[in-house]
Each structure stands twice: as C-alpha cells, then as structure tokens.
Amino acid sequence: MAQIKIFGYADKISVKPGDTIQFHVSADGASTAEAHLVRLIHGDEHPHGPGFIEEEIDCVANGTWRVEKQFTQVGSFLEVADPDRKLALDGSITLCAFIWPTWPDVGHRQCLLGRWDNDKNHGYGLGINPSGRLEFWVGSGNEVDYLQAELPLQKQAWYFVAATFDARSGRATLYQEGVVNRYNSLLSKVAPVEYRSHVSEVFRFRQSNLPETPFLVAGSRDWHALRGHFVSQLYCGKIDRCGVFDRLLGREELDAIRSGGQPPSYGMVAYWDTTKGYTDRGIGDVVVDIGPHRLDANGYNRPVRAQTGYNWNGRNDCFRLAPHEYGGIEFHADAMIDSNWKVTKTLELPETLRSGAYAMRVRGGDGKGLAEEYIVFFVRPRVPSGRIALLFSTATYIAYANERFATDGHIVQPMAGQPPTISEVDIEIYENPEFGGGCYDSHADGAGICYSSYHRPMVNMRPKYRISAFDLPWNFPADLSILAWLEHKGYDYDVLTDEDVHLEGVAAMAPYACILNSTHPEYHSERMLDAHEDYIAGGGRFICMGANSFCCNVAFRDDEPWIMECRKTGGHWIAWAARPGEYYLATTGQMGGIWTGFQRWGQKLVGNTFAGEGFAHSQPYRRMPDSYDPALAWITEGIEGEIIGDFGLGNGGAAGIEIDCYKLGFGTPPNTKIIASSGGHPDNYIAHDEEGAHAHQGFSGTHNYILRADMVYFEAPNHGAVFATGSIAFGSALPIDGFENNVSQLLSNVVNAFVKPGPLPGSSNRPMQNTERLERVGL
C-alpha cells in the first residue's frame, strides 16, 4: 500500500473573521482526507512541557475533503505574450542573446530561447546541449536537426550567442563569442580559455510550428500524461538582451550587437531590452520588447532581476546608477515561489472566531507522520479588543521556509555540537524540489535563494515540527510557547503578523498598549522597522521576546505580500552572499543585507541585538546591579536569588540558541538598564562581530564577553517603554513547571505593568515630547 502524504498551504497568512480563505492540498496515496479547523495553543512536544495543545473549532469546512496529487511548475522562465503568433516563424530566422550560464554541463538540454515543443518536436530553439555546448535546432514533428558548437561553454562567463537559419538553402550557422571583461565573469583574460566558436551546417528541413506553442525564454514547452503541459529544458544562468529576426543577420550586424550597438530594426520581430523598466524603486516581472509588435515577456517563478549584465564594468554597484549595465536576468531550474495548485476548499471564516493562531488540520489514513498536515494562518480581530497583541514573525517564517540545514548545511554539526536528527519531513524536503527552499538555502547551481513565499507548503511551520539540525522547536513552533503562556495567565490578547505591520504600518500596532513579539524577530522591511520605531516613540510598550532581533532587511510588493526578497550581502554568519554589484533589492531599489549597513542597529530600537549563536547548551541569566535599583524592583518582584531561568525546553536554559547584547556604541539608548545577563556559553557559540575586528582567536563562548544575553529595559517618550529578553530560548523556558517559574513571574511583572495606563512604576516622569506625526497608541 502506498504511503499517504498530505501537503498544503493557504492563499492568506493573516485574516479576520468573515474573510474568505482558500486551502490548496495535494495528496499522495489517498483520494479523501479528514479536515478540521483547530486553534493552536502549544506546539513543542518536549516531555518537560505541556505537550501539544490544540482546540477543535466547529466550522462548515470540517469533514471529508476530496484530495488529489497536485503538480508544481518549478523553474523560472519568461513567457512571451504573442496572441497573433508573430513568432511562429517558418522561414529564415535569427536568434541572438547575451548569456552567462551557471551550470552548462548539467547533463540535460537547456533552452535559452525559442518556440519549441519538446514533446512533439515542433518549432525552433537556441540552447545548451547535455554536454554543455551551444546548440541550435529545428523540428518538423517527425525529426529534429541539431547544430552544436565546437567548444563547451564556460561557467559564469559572458557570451554573445546567435543562430541563423536560411530557409532557402537550409544552412544553419552558430555564432559564439566571449564578451568577458575585467569584472563581469568568473575568469580573467590571464586564463588561457577559448570562447569563440563559429560552425555551419545544412539542415534537411525547416521548422514546423504548432499554433499553441508559446515562445519561452529559459525553457521550452513539454507534456506529461499525468500533469498535462509544463515547462522543461529549464536554463540555469543569466540572459541579457535577446531577440528574434525574420531574416539572416550578417556577421557585421551580429558583431555590432555584440559590441553594444543597437540591433537593426529591419527584420526585427522582437527584441527584449532587459534594461528597460527600471525605476528608483526597482523593477517588476515584465520584460519589455522594443520591437514593432511589443511582444512583452512575463516572468514566472520570479526570475531574478537587478543583476549585472554583460557590460557591467565594476564602477557602479546598483542598477539605479547605471541601468544599462543591469540587463542580466538570472534563471534557476529549481526556482519556486508559487505552487499554483488548484483550490481544494474555500472557507468563509466564522464571525465569532476569536483572534489567535489557527490551522486547518488535514489527515489522511491513520493521520500520522506525513499523513498529517497543518495549514497555519492567523486571525486578527475585526475590531481590536485586547490591550495586548502577540506579533508573529511571519517574515522570519518565510525566510526559513523549508530550510535544508540538516541535509545541506555543511557547518551545521559544529554549530549544533551534535549530529542532526533527520526526520521524514527533512527527507521529503530534500527529495522534493517542488516545495522550494528558503533564504538560507542555495539553488542547485550554487546561487543563493533570494525569493521565498508562503504560497507553497512550508512544512517547518507545522506546530509539532522540530528543526532537525538543532533538535529544537524553531520559529513558529517555539513561538506557540509564548501564546500558551498568555493563555495560561488568562490575558486578553489579539494576534498580529509581520504582514499586517508591513501593509498597515504603525496603524496595525497603535490600538495596543503592549505588544510582545516572537522568539526570532530577525527579518523586517523598512516599513515594519519604521512602524516599530513610531509605535515605541509614540508611547507604545514593546516586549522583544527573542533574539537576532531586527537584523535583516527584506522587501515585499504590496500586490504580492506572500513573496519576500532577501539579498545577503556578506559577513561570517550568513548562509550565502549576493555577488558583487547585486546587493540591491529588485523589489524596492534599496540595498539588501543587514540593517547594520543602514545605521539602524537593533540596539537603537530595543536596546540590544545580535551578539552570537550556538546550539549546544543554553545558560541561565544572572541578575545585574541595575535590577536592585528600587525604581526597578517591580520587574523582579517575587523572584528569589540571583539566577533566572536555569531551565527550559530550549537546550536547558532561558538564555541561549541565539543571543543579543547591549552596546552603547551601536545605539543602545543611554537610559537602558541591564536587568540580567547570561554567561559561560560553550565554545560552539561564536560571536557576531559588528565592529569589524580582524579575525583572531577568542570569538567563541568561553573567551568572548560579547557572547551574552542581556535582558534590558528602558523608558521611551510618552510613557513608552521597551523590555527585551535578548534570547531565543527565553520563550521556551516559560512552560516549565506548568508555567509557574521565575521566568514566567518576571514576564508577568513586565506585562502587568505595561498594560496599565499612565506612568510606569519608578518612571522618571519625563514630559510628553512632540510626536504629533505619530499614531496615538492604546494607553
């Protein structure tokens, strides 16, 4: 009997009662599944905690669903809008393009551009054959004629390539010339590499075109009995300006294009100028045709734009400065930002649904292992009602979606201090590229994944999931321990998501007197960062519950908030780095990387930020002298002794995994008080150095004073305040002993004080400052 596997996703991650949400489910080995709406309360199944807790919710969608195997189109490519079939050329033809292949010898054919049906062998195409050589082909349906270059293409080298076909004589010619300069390619001119190849041959027949075949860039049409039409022969690499002519271009004309000249208008059917469309705020997916028919092309699975082109000369590092040097569009055969599955069930959410974290639980067969799926989403109130909000870090969830640390992370074992605990979910992610990776993973050709999305299964958002590399609850499953604490303590709270804050700004936060965020609030757009700053400065009271806080700059489009762009720009603690000249986000035009590069350190916002990470053992906090100040005694009221949190579900302590510290030189407000600090972290904790020190011994836990979690508190204007834990592990300490412990007591003290109107206990009672431009917050 076939193993049953259930996977799914929703079209929205944040909704309100009465909204409509769509669920997309794919099933192997089953035609029906049992679905039930649940409210999620606690995820971590660690035996020292309360275990997994969910509440079943009555709704009309509960019951048996019809399910089926659904297929995903992976790979990025361009499809040309050609309703009048201008590109269905059956006579003489010229194809040309600038290309920068990243995996020419992958072992299968890659189509650069053409109107080719790979199933029926009709049409024409210019591409790379399985041995890594440039190739031109035409098909009549029964047969295909091929012409290949003499020399294989070099990896990461810019070429100008062209194919001409004389329908009268049948002669086909391939033209391959290197356009390598001092900056644009992997190798320099000192490497004895030959790039040029010119070959010619007489074909037996001309191309025959089918009416329904689309013209594609970086792929070709194919068909399979189970899934129907799809795109195969996907290309890995960049393509710069490319075109199609309905005549033979001569050698001099091709040389002129290669040298940067304008393509001839005579005979031009289409010419896609990949440098057109840039604005100060980035560029979209439409590639402009400057030819007579305006046959614009549209990107699928988000081809990467704002990439350097064949003529990049190393002087300018951003497309805003020299858009004509940024014609490179990068394609990946395993890119995936939207599964595009059929809708399995549509649900109008009950108006009575309370705010919280929810999932549609879908089970096939015995409902165990891969036969159980939780499609997670968050419900905001239609009208904010509580004084407290729990802000879920959905941008971080997207960044880590389907991460492959356990299978592909070569440095993970020394980071964790233990071998990974591989689960069947990890194996499924590894074996199924159609789920796509996250922003910590790389494409198969080695380039970092800079786009991630929640329009696909995110198996590591299942509430019971433990990250196998570290054997911990990670991100959303860990964040449920904070929600469960709010439930246990009986607080009236609402939930928010990063998406809400990005789309609505401070208006999403302003109704609440106190906001707690999540264990790993790492990724933020500029709008999100601005909203946090304005909320706190306007009198909001903010509890930063985690670490690695407010570090990375990301971008979203307003019309597609489910897709996030992230470009990593160097440093010893990142998974990959964008190439030189490619640090700027195509979505917004802003530089990517970490907020440190913009002088917006996390310390400026919450008093501490990233100090380092390690995954072997967590440590307790020790109270610092500031905690004994009578004005701050309310924070530690009811706590005996110096030690706080020498326990926890996150590696045995409340301070660990990733930790943040106080640094006045990086913007920690000067009135910040250190309530407690950790120390004694093991040597698999490595410091993150923001100060640009030379590499030297002493960056590990037992040698570096920076490697500590600082629990800090400060007052902000208008009776605002910030309390920051400085530790990812803090939230996982809350459930110990039935939520009755000194970490829980301390957090209760802070929340209880933060929700009360008026000055805080021991407040310096500074006068209101002029913040008329800010939203009033819910005090």
Protein topology:
Elements: E1 5-10, E2 14-15, E3 20-28, E4 32-42, E5 53-57, E6 63-66, E7 77-80, E8 93-101, E9 110-117, E10 122-128, E11 133-140, E12 144-152, E13 159-165, E14 171-178, E15 197-202, E16 216-217, E17 220-224, E18 228-232, E19 237-245, H1 251-258, E20 268-272, E21 286-287, E22 297-300, E23 304-307, E24 328-331, E25 345-348, E26 356-363, E27 372-379, E28 388-392, H2 394-399, H3 405-408, H4 412-416, H5 424-431, E29 451-453, H6 476-489, E30 493-497, H7 498-504, E31 514-516, E32 523-524, H8 526-537, E33 541-544, E34 552-553, E35 555-557, E36 560-565, H9 602-606, E37 608-619, E38 621-623, E39 643-644, E40 655-662, E41 673-678, E42 686-687, E43 710-716, E44 720-724, H10 730-733, H11 736-739, H12 742-755
Helix pairs in contact: 7-8
Region (Disordered): 758-779
Pfam family, one: DMFA2_C
Organism: Bradyrhizobium septentrionale
